[in-house]
């Protein structure tokens, strides 16, 4: 479907950093670039807004979200509220297939380099995807598609912030954090798993907001 292709291209461009925070997403320009109708682009942009990767501004069209300490704090609060609860459900409801999926997702994440030659200081595309799959797999045992759809939206929004800000930095042992998450979940210790996830999300949020407050976050490239 044409609108699906345009949606995927716009979404990928935002996640790559082709647009800087606050940049306008102009339907007419995008329609010309993509060689499609204005209606197709608008449909795609509405979906991108639904993912939390763009804002719809009254009488001003669409734009990439601006860097905002408050915005990312709100996203972080939502994730810390939702995800430990969903993880508890996964620990309680997940079957043997879920356990196998968690092991496989963690193995992939642990074996994927976080930083790749040629991709600079930002997390590699391969690691970012392995990271998403691991976290979603942990929660998938809940068996509730509405909760998982909410996770997907929050993840996309926080991933955008992380990609704008994340870079090599001391004091964070992602490998150990993810290993403890896997171990607690597969031990069927809901309290420990929820606690580990809360700490993990808090460290991520603290790192992002500290980078924004200090003004040291890496600016994404902008081709627009």
How would you describe the shape?
Answer: globular
The largest sheet, given as strand count, sense and whether it forms a barrel, is:
3 strands, antiparallel
* Strand neighbour order, sheet with most strands: 1-3-2
Q: Count of DSSP E strands? A: 3
Please provide the ordered H/E string of secondary-structure elements.
HEHHEEHHHHHH
Number of DSSP helices?
Answer: 9
Distance between the termini: 26 Å
Q: Report Rg.
A: 18 Å
Binned strand content: under 5%
Low-confidence stretches: 215-224
Average the pLDDT over all residues and give the rounded result: 86
The level of helicity is: 55-70%
What's the assembly state of these chains? single chain
Helix-and-strand structural type: mainly alpha
